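The material for today's practical consists of a large collection of protein records. Backbone structure tokens are a discrete shorthand for how the chain folds in space. An example says more than a description, so a record of this kind follows:
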Amino acid sequence: MLPNKEKNKTVSLRSKSKKDSSRRQPGRDLGNSPAFSYYAKRSGDPGQLSRKTQREKLPILQRQWFKNLPSLIALTVVVVSVLYCLGLNTNPKILLSAPDAKATPMRSREAYQKGAEEILNSSIFNRSKLTINTDAFYAQFLEKFPEVADASLNLPLVSRRPVISIDTAQPQIILSVGNRNYVIDSRGKAIMNAADLAKSTRMSLLVVNDESGLQAKVGQGVLPASEMDFITQVIAQLKSKDISVQSIRLPVAAKEMEVRVSNKPYVIKFNVDTDPRIAAGDYLAVNETLQKQNITPSQYIDVRIEGRVYYK
């Protein structure tokens, strides 16, 4: 019987051992895994590593910023300088000239500068070299100053002050139409009211009285250029012989012109479609002959037909 008891005892011991081992299994697993620690967990935090990396990189970025600072300052200065040079102020420099160097300017330099400033200030686009419309400025300037034969707006490369070159027309006569007097240039254009012309210049111009019904307006053509050339040529031819023209009249009849000279009771009748030098030469030749014969016409000397002269 004893062997049976031992056998049973042995079996029970094995069962207990097995039971204990199963109970120790969790402990054994915990013993094999690393021990839990708060500080160990914090040391492996990815966020902590990222902030540490950023703190290490910050001095490097600061050094790079200070290293590039002179280049950034230079670039800023260049950009500001370019923008400054592209701007325009509204105080232009006026270069004034005339066909005749001895001619008295019809307006003062200040008058042209004030007019140019008004045009430049009329639009914000006129404040930049990139946006200003020079053709529009030219048109507005000529409209404001019809006596200007040509004008140009020059934009300097570096300076902000524009330069305006002005060529003024030369006044030839004062045309009296109705109760208004206009200054006429060599193109036959009414360039200004005679009252706006400097008195010294106005007194030196011959007055032509129109009775043909011409329509005159400042800034527009009044007389054909060929007719203006005829008038100025005749005046010059008579002046070369010390014959002073007292007045000129444009009668109702088309293409006719009557000239009255000083100290003579008659008028000289011209046709503006003829050659002015031939017509003036015919008069000068007849006048010399009549003076030798001691004859003075009382009404007219007619040179309207080339090669033929009539007088009365």
